[in-house]
Recover the amino acids of this structure.
């Protein structure tokens, strides 16, 4: 299934590894921040409502 | 869609409502096109006559380099919109895009360096293109650092948008300066890694799909992050009002 | 505006005013280089133009936060803003004062330090000329950076991060003039480009610096 990358296997595989890791990183960080801010905002809004 | 209605989305609430519907579509199509493009390019394309299997790096290097530049251009446009029309969503979109653009720049730099290693024999070469991307990375870093350093939201938006404008002019200047700097005596070392001119069809089509994937991913991430910034800004406003004893 | 200029120059020249700081730093950097790269005169000759340019640039960088910091702290910046002077004029005068008290001394001292680094004879003229043409740009660009970070505590590091990428074109062309001049090659292109960048920044960047300062003084 894996193509024969010859002598450049290290270069090609590490490029893909590095890129996919970095893409996954920015996606994960963005998702995590989004969730956190969303719940923080809901908490603040609840507090503000209850304070009248 | 008339230009008038485009400004409606500058309203934070409307922006969140609209992106509620639209974001999932962008996210899924990004995932799909990325997978198709990269799998096609990695598994189903031949090796290059001169570069061997390293040509497969093109499916990462070219799209990420493209997005690194386009992200900055988008930030430039949204900064101008903020300066002229004071739409907060615009300023927040620029803030949201910067880290994504920076990651794209890093990917372009790393894949460029890794691709260059078997070709040039060193882990880093001061090739004009790579050098320009290194400078672009520094611009992203400074822009993000300035946002983080300033407490007041509006002040931060104003200062960073002016920085983006001035930075864009200098980024362009640097591009030409760097080309001048490295074409003098060392002609042989500057190997151009982006061969848009003569890419054969068999490489070009999966490359197009990969590029589309990166574009869609960028859009999805920026939409998501802008929503986050809008919420964060609203939260800070609510907290400030609370503290003033409203 | 002349009054502002003389006041700033006098402030910088006082003890603790930062005048000697840039020069001392320049000297120290040049002295440290041979310890870092080895004392072979052939090598030092080759890198001398670049090192001297870099040293001057870093010495400029060090003194940038003083441009607005003192006036910001004691409120005189607010007073200046309400005066009839246009903000663009104020920032230009500030940049000029910085150049006269930091950049110009560096230019004058550079040939002396060039001796320490075995700068080739032909290089002295071009080094001095390129620095004379380039340091005004460094001051104007630095003023922009200083305006951006004026309100921040410990903004010095951020100031460097923002300003250094903006310095790259001037550094490239300035060092290129110095290097080609030292080796006897033609210097017209980089010289013209260096001059162009300096003129462009002097003419246009004050508008951005003024806008930034107005934002920070709100």
């Amino acid at each position: 299934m894996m193509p024969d990358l010859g002598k450049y296997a290290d270069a090609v595989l590490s490029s893909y590894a590095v890129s996919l890791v970095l893409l996954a990183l920015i996606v994960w960080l963005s998702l995590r921040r989004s969730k956190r801010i969303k719940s923080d905002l809901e908490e603040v809004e609840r507090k503000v409502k209850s304070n009248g | 869609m008339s230009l008038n209605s485009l400004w409606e989305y500058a309203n934070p609430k409307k922006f969140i409502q609209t992106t509620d519907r639209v974001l999932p579509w962008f996210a899924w199509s990004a995932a799909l096109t990325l997978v198709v493009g990269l799998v096609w390019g990695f598994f189903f394309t031949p090796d290059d006559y001169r570069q061997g299997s390293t040509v497969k790096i093109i499916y990462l290097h070219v799209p990420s380099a493209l997005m690194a530049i386009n992200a900055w251009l988008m930030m430039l446009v949204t900064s101008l919109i903020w300066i002229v029309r004071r739409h907060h969503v615009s300023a927040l979109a620029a803030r949201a895009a910067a880290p994504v653009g920076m990651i794209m720049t890093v990917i372009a730099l790393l894949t460029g360096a890794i691709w260059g290693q078997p070709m040039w024999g060193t882990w880093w070469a001061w090739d004009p293109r790579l050098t320009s991307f290194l400078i672009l990375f520094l611009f992203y870093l400074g822009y993000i650092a300035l946002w983080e350093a300033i407490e007041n939201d509006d002040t931060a938006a104003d200062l960073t948008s002016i920085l983006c404008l001035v930075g864009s002019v200098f980024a362009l200047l640097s591009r030409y300066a760097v080309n001048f700097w490295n074409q003098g005596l060392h002609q042989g070392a500057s190997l151009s890694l982006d061969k848009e001119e003569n890419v054969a069809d068999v490489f070009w089509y999966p490359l197009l799909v990969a590029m589309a994937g990166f574009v869609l991913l960028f859009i999805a991430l920026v939409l998501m992050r802008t929503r986050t910034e809008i919420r964060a800004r609203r939260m800070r406003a609510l907290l400030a009002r609370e503290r003033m004893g409203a | 505006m002349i009054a502002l200029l003389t006041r700033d120059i006098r402030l910088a020249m006082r003890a603790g005013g930062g005048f000697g700081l840039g020069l001392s730093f320049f000297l120290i950097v040049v002295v440290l280089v041979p310890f870092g790269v080895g004392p072979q005169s052939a090598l030092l000759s080759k890198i001398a133009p670049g090192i001297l340019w870099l040293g001057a640039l870093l010495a400029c960088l060090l003194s940038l936060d003083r441009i607005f910091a003192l006036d910001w702290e004691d409120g005189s910046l607010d007073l200046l803003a309400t005066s009839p002077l246009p903000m663009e004029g104020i920032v230009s005068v500030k940049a000029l004062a910085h150049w006269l008290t930091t950049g110009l001394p560096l230019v004058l001292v550079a040939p002396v330090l060039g001796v320490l680094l075995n700068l080739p004879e032909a290089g002295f003229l071009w080094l001095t000329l390129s620095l004379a043409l380039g340091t005004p740009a460094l001051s104007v660009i630095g003023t922009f950076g200083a305006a951006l970070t004026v309100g921040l505590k410990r903004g010095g590091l951020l100031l460097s991060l923002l300003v250094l990428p903006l310095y790259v074109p001037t550094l490239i062309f300035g060092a290129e003039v110095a290097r080609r001049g030292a080796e006897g090659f033609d210097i017209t292109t980089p010289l013209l480009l260096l001059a162009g960048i300096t003129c462009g920044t002097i003419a246009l960047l004050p508008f951005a610096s003024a806008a930034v300062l107005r934002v920070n003084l709100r």
